[in-house]
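Project outcomes to date are best conveyed with an example. Our students and postdoctoral researchers have been running inverse folding experiments weekly, and each run begins with a structure described purely in tokens. The record below, which covers 480 residues, was selected by the lab manager from last quarter's runs and is presented without edits.
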């Protein structure tokens, strides 16, 4: 026996046939044919059809015919008002809503549509006033709907404290509202109202101890106050209730990192990778933890995983390079840094690292080029000037070094360290008297920096004038 599916009995086909008949009846009505009558819900089905096709001019036309037959239907007036709003005929929309209000003022649709009109007219305060007044007259789900709408209005005109207040009120009425629980977490962080959030969620948990989102939000609020231990406790309850709650594991990882508990952070972040689609930010965080544990090969492995998922993030190549630099693998580090500078050519950190790599490979010319990039982009940055001047000193560029030490002093508002550097260049260039003067200048401003002066060239202590200046400051206990 052959079985087949009888399409004539398909609910979809039946619905389609009914709609076809309704549309024909509507055409008959427009043509003025006798016995052309359509029930109110029939008009609503026709309206839905044209709304789906986004033919709102036709929707308006259908509404006019429908209202002429059912003049006391508030719901048809609401449909008409909505079409007028879409067609930007706001004054007419308000007129339709005023008629509807006389027929039925107990439908939240009335207030939501009024709000839409005022928002479209950029009259946010009027929109808020309509909802604030209406909320007092409703309860239950209808009150919740209006509060959600009011939150959107406040968001629209950037009254963010009031947005938070709306979600606070919603959760007092419905503590298990998932939408409100998700949204208040964001607004708590945005407004910084962590203490209020903690009290709210503690109350929710007292009544509903297995509400995982409430535990999560409690943890996030504690984290907002940097109470990371308490945050961890809350997140642990959240994952105990739902062991697949990947966002709780994410935040746990962040809290552990803040407490420098890198092994614990790695464990929970790897759990995130098991539960959710891999993301570069998670691999990057795991890499950061391994880096802090001085496990550079595992740090590098995770940074590379992150870079495969986000090839445009130049910071990841920089972080990979740093792991190589920590191991003294200068050429491997350079390879990664050159990828990074292809994305952001003049990024100071990348150029500084490249300069340090080339300096360690005794390639002074390249080192000076990259250190030069750093001071061009950030002329007030002390580290860039220090690295450049150290590089020039190691290359015995004593005359140029004096000139660049003057540039450094000029750009950094006379930072004392550069008097010491200038002094060293002068001594090395045989200008002993001038070298002593610059050393005196540096010592007068910050004698403790003499240690960096000596680190640059320990042999400088063979100069009796240098020893005499340092001894004089030691005698007066300026150096310890």
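After processing, the design step wrote out the following sequence:
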């Amino acid at each position: 026996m052959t079985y087949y599916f009888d399409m004539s009995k398909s609910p979809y086909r039946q619905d389609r046939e009914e709609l076809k008949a309704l549309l024909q009846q509507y055409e008959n009505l427009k043509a003025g044919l006798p016995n052309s009558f359509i029930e109110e819900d029939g008009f609503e089905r026709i309206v839905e059809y044209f709304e789906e096709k986004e033919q709102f001019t036709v929707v308006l036309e259908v509404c006019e015919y429908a209202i002429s037959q059912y003049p006391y239907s508030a719901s048809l007036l609401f449909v008409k008002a909505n079409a007028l709003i879409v067609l930007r005929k706001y004054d007419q929309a308000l007129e339709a809503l005023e008629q509807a209000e006389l027929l039925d003022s107990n439908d939240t649709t009335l207030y939501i549509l009024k709000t839409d009109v005022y928002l479209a007219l950029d009259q946010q305060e009027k929109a808020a006033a309509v909802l604030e007044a209406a909320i007092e007259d409703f309860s239950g789900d209808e009150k919740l709907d209006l509060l959600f709408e009011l939150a959107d209005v406040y968001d629209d005109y950037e009254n963010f404290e009031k947005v938070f207040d709306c979600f606070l009120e919603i959760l007092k009425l419905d503590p298990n509202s998932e939408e409100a629980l998700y949204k208040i977490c964001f607004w708590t962080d945005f407004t910084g109202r962590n203490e209020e959030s903690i009290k709210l969620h503690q109350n929710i948990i007292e009544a509903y101890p297995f509400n995982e989102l409430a535990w999560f939000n409690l943890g996030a609020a504690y984290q907002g106050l940097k109470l990371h231990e308490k945050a961890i406790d809350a997140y642990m309850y959240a994952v105990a209730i739902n062991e697949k709650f990947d966002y709780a594991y994410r935040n746990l990882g962040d809290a552990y990192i803040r407490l420098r508990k890198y092994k614990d952070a790695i464990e929970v972040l790897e759990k995130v990778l098991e539960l959710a689609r891999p993301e570069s930010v998670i691999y990057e965080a795991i890499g950061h933890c391994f880096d802090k544990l001085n496990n550079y090969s595992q740090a590098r492995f995770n940074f590379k995983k992150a870079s495969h998922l986000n090839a445009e993030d130049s910071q990841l190549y920089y972080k990979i390079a740093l792991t190589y630099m920590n191991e003294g693998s200068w050429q491997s580090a350079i390879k990664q840094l050159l990828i990074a500078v292809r994305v952001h050519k003049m990024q100071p950190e990348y150029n500084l690292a490249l300069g340090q790599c080339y300096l360690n490979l005794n390639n002074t010319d390249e080192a000076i080029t990259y250190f030069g990039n750093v001071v061009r982009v950030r002329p007030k940055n002390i580290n860039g000037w220090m690295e450049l001047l150290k590089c020039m000193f190691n290359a015995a560029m004593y005359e140029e070094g004096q000139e660049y030490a003057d540039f450094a002093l000029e750009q950094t508002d006379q930072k004392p360290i550069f008097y010491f550097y200038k002094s060293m260049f002068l001594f090395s260039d045989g200008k002993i008297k001038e070298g002593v003067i610059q050393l005196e200048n540096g010592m007068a401003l910050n004698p403790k920096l003499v240690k960096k002066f000596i680190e640059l060239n320990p042999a400088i202590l063979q100069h009796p004038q240098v020893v005499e200046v340092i001894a004089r400051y030691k005698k007066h206990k300026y150096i310890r």
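The domain at 1-104 is CATH 1.25.40.10 (Serine Threonine Protein Phosphatase 5, Tetratricopeptide repeat). DSSP finds 27 helices and no strands in the chain. The training component of this project remains on track.
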